[in-house]
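Sequence only, no structure available. Ideas?
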Amino acid sequence: MIEASDLNYTVIRPGWFDGGNDTDYEVTKKGEPFGGQDVSRKSIADLVMRLAHDETLGSRGSLGINRK
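Reply:
I predicted one. C-alpha cells follow.
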C-alpha cells in the first residue's frame, strides 16, 4: 500500500539489532541480496539521520541495513 502511494517514503529493513558501538554498515536496495544479519542500533540511527537530512537518499525505496 505504501509503495503504491504518492508518499515520499523509505522502508528500512534492519538485521537483528545489537548494542554495538559501531557505524560500520552497508545498505542494500530491494531486490539486492541482504549482506548479513546483525546491525547496531547506532548504525540504524546514523542511517535515519542521513535520510532525514537528504530527502533524495532512499526516496521511495526499501533499504536493508546490516553490519559490514
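Residues 6 and 18 are 34 Å apart (CA to CA).
Hope that gets you unstuck.
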